[in-house]
Design brief:
Length: 122
Amino acid sequence: MKGERVILSNNPMVREGWQSCRWVDGDAAEVARQARDLVHRGWRFHCHPLAGSIRLLRNPFRTMILDQGGASASPEQVAMAEEALRRLRTEGCPDVPEADGDDYALIDLDLAWRALGGPDSE
């Protein structure tokens, strides 16, 4: 039986591509905070929350995919969630020039696309 899946994102391109996207009105750290809260309730990351290169920590757009897990939180998943939140809060994105915004959004969309196999294929 396939469990429930949630896609948390502050990326408008992801919101347009997946009907099941849960919109996060905030920065990348807010996406990580909401993901962390789910992990503490037993959800598991579908892929690493900081997928991509170290340089992408500066991306203002973040998409995190989680699958419904067990009844209790996994210590490994909690550690991953807490580390992602810490890093995005401390190393997070500075103001990105508007001209670069679409490029960053496209990179984040591509990472989500690869993790899920395309829009609405979840």
